[in-house]
Design a protein that fits this description.
The complex is a heterodimer.
Chain A (H helix, E strand, L loop, with lengths): L3 H4 L12 H10 L11 E5 L5 H9 L4 E6 L2 H14 L4 E5 L11 E6 L8 H14 E12 L4 H15 L5 H18 L9 H13 L2 H6 L11 H10 L3 E5 L2 H5 L5 H11 L3 H12 L3 E7 L18 E4 L2 E2 L10 E5 L2 E5 L2 H13 L6 H12 L6 H16 L3 E4 L17 H9 L2 E3 L5 E3 L3 H9 L6 H12 L7 H17 L11
Parallel strand pairs in A: 1-2, 1-4, 2-3, 4-5
Antiparallel strand pairs in A: 5-7, 6-7, 8-12, 9-10, 10-11, 13-14
Helix pairs in contact in A: 6-7, 6-8, 7-8, 12-13, 14-15, 17-18, 18-19, 19-20
Chain B lengths: L3 H4 L12 H10 L11 E5 L5 H9 L4 E6 L2 H14 L4 E5 L12 E6 L8 H14 E12 L4 H15 L5 H19 L9 H11 L3 H6 L11 H10 L2 E6 L12 H11 L3 H12 L3 E8 L17 E4 L14 E5 L2 E5 L2 H12 L5 E2 H11 L7 H16 L3 E4 L17 H9 L2 E3 L5 E3 L3 H9 L6 H8 L11 H17 L6
Parallel strand pairs in B: 1-2, 1-4, 2-3, 4-5
Antiparallel strand pairs in B: 5-7, 6-7, 8-11, 8-12, 9-10, 13-14
Classes of the chains: A alpha/beta, B alpha/beta.
């Protein structure tokens, strides 16, 4: 069957949050006994060209990945890449949500960008499929546009669609949509108090930032039905699936709200986790959700369990706001606009280790021993451990620390003839960004870095690459060979820490 | 049949913009020839307690008024006021839009306010079908509706409040909880980095500060509140042989206030199609509400108002100005609320000053020109001068600085020997504090002596009689001396007379 996606490609980007290792960690924190990632089975419904799933398959070689999509062209593109890479743990298929049948249950199911964008009967079939395909302790993640704040987006979508009218040539449609957005920007009052922050941003994004094909498939989608969280939760419940958490827990907690609001929120929502979740959306005017659901019969607690951290991996996602480690005062750690104060030598040491070693993933005990070394201690007490687990949970809920259920096998110290992830090398053939085994998307601003990665195929030493690139770029760069070697060496080490290199035992 | 309006009454009040005289004026300006309101047949669908219709009926004794509403409690309140005021040109009844028996009647004016967006789809369809069947050839309808795209921001708040009050049966508790929810949102929006309020914040604040409890219950918490895009509404109207003529508020159809670049694009996008043009104007202004004048599709309204049509209407203005400078080519600014306009022609400036000084009285163009001539000590004004003035007056009208009306109610603007308030006003003070003037505005009389005074204004008592009867009603410690009291009384009655409160 031909779909709209055959006419205009939708660029799919690997997303760290859609990795089974991330879903596993969030599920565990909220009491769902999600299976171990290494040997798990993951399904992506509506996988497009499968780029995300392929990058997951490369990073978890022992797990099985299945993806299907209605767009034959996207699947054909994905299949070609899979066979080029020789990736054997992934299967991409043409498939329709209303008819597709799972062979075996899946531990992780990802459905990104589907729920709000399909007709009601497909939405219904989708949840039915999740309910039938999910293993008893598995988790599924469904993204959708959320009310209340999608109403401000809806204004723009509908105005653009009116302006597009009956046209059906994608290029013309996209041009008309941008024309309308420019018109609206021209009309928007410059007077104080008339700005609608979210709306004005949306208009600006359409004009200046939006990738044309994303505009076509999102803003101009014939179906684009946002939902209130409570509507989605009720729909899931109807299919025996219950709310676990949001895929980004720190988006869920509104750490930035003052205590007074949180208290008010508890009263208004009668302390029912699902209701409270809805009031959070009211409070922060949410517009998008990626909700984790599971079959687990237990009612959600809505509160994460700090002890689950012991079974997970911890990595830093922040920077230190002050450097005075020894001072007898709290240290500030920041991620984006969020900041927390960390007090006490042990907690400070833990956070500093995470900052310094980022993006390295630690087991809890390993992290503690690194921190102890920093402050010259042998071990920590049971009480200290409890406090630390709670502090890490708080840091996780504010987005300063990430928790993962899996560490891919990757080479931290580049060997003699390093091999970069074959998928990353493939990506760099057509774009300037590449996904590492840790699912980080790296951007390469210049050709030298990009070409270095493409040369990392296990047949060349760094010196070989320095020779080749120096020859190639001698007319375009002032770098001496020694300088180039230093730059490449530094870059390679950084890329290795980011998980770009396959483990040395993969050299065969 | 019991409605939610029986549990919590909706406060209805006379609305100048929905008055047939106003509809007549706007339609006349865009080239239509509606029936003179004073001798017309008028229907209000969903009239509530008919406050609006009754006030129209009292000011236009030769017109005939019909109204119906689903709420029997509201209709009973209205009927009782009609009886007390002794009005014989109005009849209201309990009726359902989907079943109401029109018979072979037709109406020159049909008023539908606050219904379209607040009823289920099948009622909405019955409603427009009824308008289509009941309007005379040159008839006009008034229709209000919540509009997209602007209502999407309002809908956020409505739905949050409705989610919060779901399952609460008691209306009063429902209202309390809705305020509580709005307050929660207000607190959530108060972040130190947000210095400014945006339209959403103002919606929240409006609910908290200005929303009457019963209006909150019937509007924001209404189980049905379905805004509509203009182009959809227009095609719904077209299905029943109806078309959009104009907004009732001249300043909201004032295309010229938009930036030239915006206007140019709207013209380009709409390619001469009126409906598209209106739709793009709604996009440009993120419109959230419309109050429209409708007519049959056989009528052809002009795109731009015709200045000569002012000759058939009455002018009034509540403009204020700071300094008078009649020197030609020196601009003089006139303001009304947050709107303003500047004129530099001497004749226009004189005309504006005259209109402002006799507010709220309505004058014809000829009366205005005569007075201008006298003030400027001119025997006559040339056609060119008058045409230029008319163009300026149209601009002032489109800016909401000058108002045009289609009727001149009969009232005395100077205090007579034996002042006489309308029968309606005297009936109204017996029921509550709100009283309607013949100019269709309302005045509130909160204290018992004032209300007693209105009752006594029956044309049989002199000022002295009134003073003698009312003064003793004041408590000892607040009672002014007889001279002071009489002076104050004359001052207040003179003001009331100017507002169109007295018929004799």
């Amino acid at each position: 069957m031909s779909t709209l996606y055959d006419a205009v490609d939708y660029p799919t980007l690997p997303r760290i949050l859609g990795h089974p290792g991330h879903m596993h960690a969030v599920a565990r924190m909220f009491g769902v006994p999600a299976p171990a990632v290494a040997n798990s089975r993951m399904l992506e419904i509506g996988c497009g060209d499968g780029f995300h799933l392929i990058s997951c398959a490369v990073s978890v070689p022992q797990a099985t990945f299945v993806g299907f999509d209605l767009s034959r062209e996207a699947i054909a593109r994905g299949k070609a890449i899979v066979s080029r890479l020789g990736q054997t743990n992934i299967r991409l298929e043409d498939g329709d949500i209303t008819t597709w049948q799972p062979d075996e249950p899946f531990d992780f199911i990802l459905v990104h960008g589907v729920y709000s964008w399909v007709p009601e009967f497909v939405r219904e079939a989708l949840l039915q499929l999740i309910a039938s395909a999910l293993s008893p302790s598995g988790v599924a993640c469904v993204s959708y546009n959320a009310y209340p704040a999608s109403y401000t987006r809806q204004m723009l979508w509908e105005m653009m669609k009116y302006h597009v009218g009956e046209r059906n040539d994608p290029k013309e449609m996209i041009d008309k949509a941008i024309e309308l957005a420019e018109f609206i920007q021209l009309c928007r009052p410059k007077m104080e108090g008339e700005e609608l922050e979210l709306f004005d941003n949306d208009v600006d994004i359409v004009i200046n930032k939006q990738i044309r094909s994303v505009l076509y498939h999102d803003e101009l989608a014939p179906i684009n039905q946002p939902f209130y969280f409570h509507e989605f939760a009720a729909h899931a419940r109807h299919h025996g699936l219950r709310f676990v958490s949001e895929l980004e827990p720190h988006v869920m907690t509104n750490g930035e709200f003052p205590q007074a609001i949180n208290t008010l929120l508890q009263t208004l929502s009668h302390v029912n986790p699902e209701r409270r979740e809805q009031y959070y959306d009211f409070a922060c005017l949410r517009r998008f959700r990626q909700t984790l659901i599971a079959k687990s019969p237990h009612e959600p607690k809505g509160i994460p369990d700090p002890h689950a951290i012991r079974e997970l991996y911890i990595a830093g996602n922040c920077v230190a706001g002050s450097v005075d480690f020894a001072a007898d005062e709290p240290m500030v750690f920041m991620a984006g606009e969020t900041a927390i104060n960390v007090d006490g030598p042990l907690a400070k040491a833990v956070m500093l280790v995470l900052v310094d070693e980022r993006p390295r993933r630690f087991r809890f005990d390993e992290l503690v021993s690194f921190a102890c070394a920093k402050i010259g201690r042998e071990s920590i007490t049971k009480e200290e451990e409890e406090v630390l687990l709670r502090d890490l949970t708080t840091a996780w809920l504010t987005g300063l620390v990430v928790l993962k259920g899996y560490v891919p096998d990757y080479e931290v110290t580049p060997g003699e003839r390093p091999i970069a992830s074959p998928f990353a090398r493939f990506q760099l053939e057509q774009s300037s960004s590449a996904t590492t085994l840790l699912m980080l998307n790296l951007n390469f601003a210049d050709d030298i870095g990009r070409m270095m990665v493409q040369q990392l195929d296990g047949t060349r030493t760094l010196e070989d690459i320095v020779d080749e690139l120096h020859q190639k770029f001698k007319n375009e760069t002032d770098l001496s060979k020694d300088q180039l070697r230093t730059v490449l060496q530094q870059n390679l080490e950084k890329l290795a820490r980011g998980g770009l290199l396959l483990p040395s035992h993969a050299h065969a | 049949m019991a409605t939610t309006y029986d549990a919590i009454a909706y406060p209805t009040f006379p609305r100048l913009l929905a008055h047939p005289g106003h509809l007549y004026a706007v339609a006349t300006m865009v080239g239509l020839s509606p029936a003179p309101p004073e001798i017309s047949n008028i229907l209000e669908i969903g009239c509530g307690d008919a406050s609006h219709l009754i006030a129209c009926a009292a000011a236009m004794p030769e017109a005939t008024f019909t109204g119906f509403d689903l709420s029997s409690a509201a209709i009973e309140r209205g009927q009782s006021l009609i009886r007390t005021a002794g009005l014989t040109n109005i009849s209201i009844e309990v009726g359902d839009i989907t079943k109401w028996n029109l018979g072979d009647r037709t109406f020159d004016y049909v008023i539908i306010d606050g219904i379209y967006s607040w009823v289920p789809a099948f009622v909405r369809h019955a409603l427009i079908s009824l308008v289509g069947r009941s309007l005379t050839e040159n008839g006009l309808a008034y229709l209000s509706a919540n509009m997209y795209p602007g209502c999407y921001t309002r809908r956020m708040l409505w739905e949050m409040m409705k989610f919060h009050v779901e399952g609460i049966d008691d209306p009063e508790q429902k209202i309390d909880e809705a305020y509580r929810m709005a307050d929660f949102i207000r607190v959530c929006r108060e972040k130190p980095e947000r210095k400014r309020q945006d339209p959403f914040d103002r919606d929240v604040e409006n609910v908290l500060k200005n929303r009457d409890r019963s209006i909150l219950y019937h509007d924001e918490l209404s189980p049905i509140n379905e805004p509509v895009y203009f182009h959809r509404l227009a095609s719904h109207l077209a299905d029943h042989g109806l078309q959009f003529v104009s907004e009732v508020l001249p300043q909201s159809m004032n295309f010229s206030t938009l930036e030239p670049a915006v206007r140019e694009r709207i013209e380009q996008f709409s390619g001469g199609d009126r409906i598209k043009r209106e739709q793009y104007i709604d996009f440009a202004t993120l419109r959230r509400f419309r109050q429209m004048i409708l007519a049959r599709t056989n009528q052809t309204p002009l795109r731009d108002p015709d200045p000569q049509a002012i000759r058939n209407l009455f002018l009034t203005s509540s403009a204020s100005f700071e300094t008078i400078d009649l020197t030609p080519d020196v601009p003089m600014t006139f303001r009304s609320d947050d709107r303003e306009i500047a004129f530099d022609r001497t004749l226009t400036k004189v005309a504006m000053i005259l209109l402002a000084s006799c507010s709220p009285q309505r004058v014809t163009l000829d009366e205005l020109l005569d007075e201008c001539g006298r003030q400027m000590q001119r025997e006559s004004l040339s056609d060119e001068e008058v045409d230029a003035l008319l163009n300026d007056l149209v601009r002032a009208w489109l800016h909401g600085i000058v108002y045009l009306r289609g009727t001149q109610p009969r009232y005395v603007s100077k205090l007579s020997e034996q002042p006489h308030a309308s029968a309606l006003a005297r009936a109204q003070v017996m029921a509550g504090p709100t009283v309607t003037c013949l100019l269709h505005t309302t005045i509130r009389f909160e204290d018992p002596p004032s209300r007693r005074l209105i009752e006594l204004l029956d044309g049989t008592r002199t000022i002295d009689d009134l003073a003698n009867e009312i003064r003793p009603l004041f408590p000892d410690d607040q009672r002014p001396s007889p001279d002071e009291f009489r002076e104050g009384l004359v001052r207040n009655l003179t003001l009331l007379a100017r507002s169109g409160f007295l018929v004799g």
